[in-house]
Amino acid sequence: MSILRAESVTKLFGRKAAEAQRRLGAGADLEEVRALGVMPAVVDATFEVEQGEIFVVMGLSGSGKSTLIRMLNGLLEATSGTVLIDGQDVAKLSPKALRALRQNKVSMVFQHFALFPHRSVLANAAYGLEVRGVPKEEREGKAREFLRLVGLEGWEDRLPGQLSGGMQQRVGLARALAAGTDIILMDEAFSALDPLIRREVQDLLLDLQGRFGKTIVFITHDLNEAMRIGDRIAVMREGRIVQIGTAEEILTDPANDYVAQFVADVDRTRVLTARSVMEKPLVTVPANTGPRTALRTMREHQTSAAFVVGRDRRLVGKVTAEVIADAVADGVQTLDGLLDPGDLDPVAADTPVAELFARCAESDLPVPVADADGTLLGVIPRVTLLAALGAINTHVDEVLDEGAGAPEPALVKEGTGE
């Protein structure tokens, strides 16, 4: 369910903004608009943000992302279009109602911390609640709680100037969380931090998001940051949103050459997941089948091993053709006692490809991919992972073509060890 929605939002700066808007509606390009002396900061932006989602807006400097986020809470008025928060049109709110919206539903974390230098860390963290009229004891209690969660317990009485940049940004994050709003807007919130501190604060944000499930709109120009923390990403160029998708979707299926060039230097092994490279297993053996049927199935597919699945395709073990053949010779009627549970530890579908190489190198069997209930989703043969790695280093399209055109390999082919 979407909690925030932008519909055809446009922001034009200049005396002839109305004329520029008319021309844009008639199909004029941005150069014609600029020739009027009008700056098209945001043009026809449409998107929805789901409850509990981290929605990242990413683009180079001047792409319009900071202007866009300021229209979401009414700090800037849109030239045209609609911003809806919980169904309320932000542009139609009275000044009093808009203040109430910012106090109760939408808080903001700024790039340069925006802390009051004369107020203590505790007073800064409690400021949103103070504005709302929450009694001192209650607001300071909540502020202390969130300062503890962001790692600043014991710093409550210090002034912002006594804190490092990373610590100051943690105060800003604690203030936004203490305010108790459903939506948090973060405008380049981590860009002023050193790389190591930046990663620590990113980890903190993801941890807090896992606990509280806030809806976050996060602005950044850093692609790796966007792909690390965003559930979905909107890529902006010259005021327009050119693509919206998950990190994996944007990486594997860029909408145009601009996006493809933008993501060219990303470490894809950290973004692509097991789901991207897994294949449907060529053969699986039902747990309730007999050894003769299992052996015949494995020989038909020229595989010397197969995964065994129970009801609802839950992974229960694996069997080898050698063991099954001996069981058939001995007159065994069921697979009970023949299953090998070794090497079964499956990976989740969202496991980054970078974490799969050691696992594939340690086992001759493909790596099974399963969901939280143990249902087998697919397998990752070593050769497939290596082929994907080679394609990753050249062009993503080659990964897709290779996966689509190659036959599905058996779990273990006779005599190959692969």
TrEMBL record:
- Give UniProt keywords alphabetically: Amino-acid transport, ATP-binding, CBS domain, Nucleotide-binding, Transport
The residues covered by the CBS domain are 278-334
Q: Any idea where the ABC transporter domain is?
A: 4-263
- What GO molecular functions are on record for this protein? ATP binding
Any one Pfam family match given in the protein's UniProt record, by short name = CBS
| Cited SMART domains | AAA, CBS
Cell membrane among the record's keywords?
A: no
Per the record, the domain of life is Bacteria
Keyword Transport part of the UniProt annotation = yes
> What does the similarity note say?
Belongs to the ABC transporter superfamily.
NCBIfam families tied to this protein: proV (TIGR01186)
What is this protein identified as? Answer: Glycine betaine/L-proline ABC transporter ATP-binding protein
Task: Specify the taxonomic lineage.
Answer: Bacteria, Bacillati, Actinomycetota, Actinomycetes, Streptosporangiales
